[in-house]
Write a structure and sequence with these properties.
Shape: globular
CATH topology: Zincin-like
CATH class: Alpha Beta
Helix content: 40-55%
Structural class: alpha+beta
Strand content: 15-25%
Distance between the termini: 22 Å
Number of domains: 1
Order of helices and strands: EEHEEHHH
Strand order of the largest sheet: 1-2-4-3
Number of helices: 4
CATH architecture: 2-Layer Sandwich
Radius of gyration: 14 Å
Length: 98
Amino acid sequence: MKIPEEFSLLNRSFSVAWMDEDTHLIAQAKGAASLEQGRVLLYPSEHREDLEHTFLHELIHMVFESSGYPELSKNEEFVDLISGMLHQYMRTKKGELE
């Protein structure tokens, strides 16, 4: 799975950047999403699957917040469940129908 440098949701652009060490230590998180700033931050990981899952986790936060469901975005267990299932789908899909 390729992690984008930017993406759009509901005609709004978002950037993806690396989280610095200070932000990582303060937030104690592998990632962060800010609808107001239009940005997703990811802390570098040696494990590609962890990084992919973290990106999808932050993406799901942005999807819920930008579509008017901020209460769903605050439910970390639900966000992690949805992002984990999406990650599994993306890593295991095979072939394509024509």
